[in-house]
Structures are given as structure tokens and as C-alpha cells.
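Hey, resending since the last one bounced:
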Amino acid sequence: MNFLFMAVAFVLGLVLLFTGSHFKNGKASRLCYGVGTIGVILAMYIAWPK
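The C-alpha cells again:
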């Protein structure tokens, strides 16, 4: 379960980071960048050895 959540958060974060550059609206692209960054950081936190 933990690995699946980490993989989904990482892939979703990367997708949002890449699609954030395609929006013309500044607020929408900033929102995509923010959520994508949080998703990638969350996946890295879960994958960090404890």
C-alpha cells in the first residue's frame, strides 16, 4: 500500500509539473507547479529510509 501510494504521488506530481508549463493562465500554472512539487516531495518523504 505504501509503495503504491508513493508511486502514484510521484507520477501525479511529475505530470502536474510538466503540464503546469502548458497553461496560459498564471494562477492555474502556479497551482499545478505547487501541487506537483508537493506530490514529488511527499513521494520522496515516503521513500526515505526510516
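The longest helix spans residues 26-47.

Sorry for the duplicate.
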